[in-house]
Amino acid sequence: MLNYVWAGLIILSFVFGLAYDARDLSRDTYRNGLAFEVELTSDLEFDASLRRQNVTVHIDPAFYKAHYNTESTPDSTFSGVIIRSTDGIQLRFAEGATLPDPWSTIRLETSSRDNDMRGTFLVTSTGLAAQSVPTDSTGLAASAAPNSVAGTVTFRSVRFVKMHAIAAAAISMAETAVTLALGLVGVIALWMGLLKIAEAAGLINTVVRFTQPILRPLFPEIPKDHPALGLIVLNLSANMLGLGNAATPLGIKAMEELQTLNPDPDTATNSMVMLLAMNTASVQLVPPVLLVALMGLQINELIFAITIVTSISLIVAVLSARLLSKMKRFQTKPAGPNTPQSLQTN
């Protein structure tokens, strides 16, 4: 069933992506092929013999808004560089410059690796700085001209932005999934080995004896002194201490023990559902390791809020699991005549 859900989500994402891309094409959101007016200034005079020359790009924010039919207001100046080659003159904005939409999208689609906005530059005869300024064979003002020139820049065409984003996200998440899986292999192997040692040493049974009075009301289907109770405690404890990677193998082992008590292997029991609900909404007494790594000491400001929210979520999860287990639609099948009395549901 889960595969069908994922397939449906993927299909819907492509449908919405195509719809947005069709809208952008109909509106010509990125003004493909249309020149944009700019003015370039430099600390030095424009020299046709120089292959690269640093410049300051001046634009009219009002013209930008009208040209792209957007409410985004850009800065009026940007740092950049012009590069002369046999193919003409290329204008490149500074790497990582703050750009509004749709320029930021054009940069992402056309120069994601270098993270700089770039386009073909042509001198105009009507620009403020280019009036009555002679030009050389490259199109830029000759060395005797002032150190400013007006012109137009034409960016590469941009199409199917959403489809590209969906494809890039799919590839990125596939890489992340492989990296995560490989990282979990060692952690799961370590904790499963420690669990095996603890089980052989009798530590699991000790944990069960101490925690039975608390867990029995929540898991009435589990027989007394069953090792599943100890694994459930360890799983919840790991979650409470923010050890998510340790909680995963403990939860898997607990589910395996609960499966040995399941009269219908294809249907989750009430105890399995309760464990899943409590594991998902476990109280966080210690912030998760991931948040600590991301926020550092600032995580201390959220400890009180995290504790309150996770406590409420745990209460809601437990009550929901108990109430749904009482509904006929969600009740497990009656136990057969050969099912042990400890496995029969009330």
Account of the protein in words:
The protein is α+β, with helices and mostly antiparallel strands. The protein folds into 2 domains: about 30-160, no CATH class; about 200-345, no CATH class. The protein is about 50% helix and about 10% strand. It has 10 helices and 6 strands. It has helices at about 1-25, 60-70, 105-110, 160-200, 205-215, 225-240, 245-260, 270-280, 290-295, 305-325, and strands at about 35-40, 50-60, 75-85, 90-95, 120-125, 150-155. Strands 1-2-3-4-5-6 form a 6-stranded antiparallel beta barrel. α7 (about 245-260) packs antiparallel against α8 (about 270-280). Mean pLDDT is about 80; it is low at about 125-135, about 140-145 and about 335-345.
Helical residue percent band? 40-55%
Mean pLDDT: 79
Strand content: 5-15%
Uncertain segments are 126-135, 140-145, 334-346
- Assembly classification: single chain
Structural class: alpha+beta
Output the number of helix runs: 10
Sheet having the most strands: 6 strands, antiparallel, barrel
Strand order of the largest sheet: 1-2-3-4-5-6
- Tell me the count of domains: 2
